[in-house]
Amino acid sequence: MAGPHVEDYTTNVPAAGTAVQIANTSRKVLKVWVKPQEGNSGVTYFGDSAVEASSTVKGWTMSTTEPAQLFDFTEAPPLQSHFWVDAATTDDKVNTVWLLE
Questions:
Q1: Has this prediction a pTM greater than 0.85?
Q2: SS3 breakdown of the chain: % helix, strand, coil, rounded to 5?
Q3: What are phi and psi of 82, to 5 degrees?
Q4: For residue 39, what pLDDT band results from cuts at 50, 70 and 90?
Q5: What is the full DSSP assignment across 31-47?
Q6: How far apart are the C-alpha atoms of 14 and 16, rounded to whole Å?
Q7: Has residue 86 got a pLDDT over 80?
Q8: Which H or E element spans position 11?
Q9: Per DSSP, what are the bridge partners of residue 32?
Q10: 96 vs 61, which has greater pLDDT?
């Protein structure tokens, strides 16, 4: 059996206020680093399928001026398909680096 491995993604939000699933996989997440892409116009949001920029369901809010955020799930790894992003501005992007089981 293979051990943990790293994957990275850039996720585009084609319509502000509409959450985008980062990866539709059943792989378990040990850790993920999340960073809005330089050049974005507004804030971005990271969370589950309910994350949404246009309502009160915000998830984790991030801007390009902040360092990458680390989320550590080693105690109870969720599935990668549970993670979504949204943005306040159309076509903003979020970069993620995943440590997967």
A1: yes
A2: 5, 45, 55
A3: -80, 0
A4: very high
A5: EEEEEEPTT-SS-EEEE
A6: 7
A7: yes
A8: strand 5-12
A9: 71, 98
A10: 96
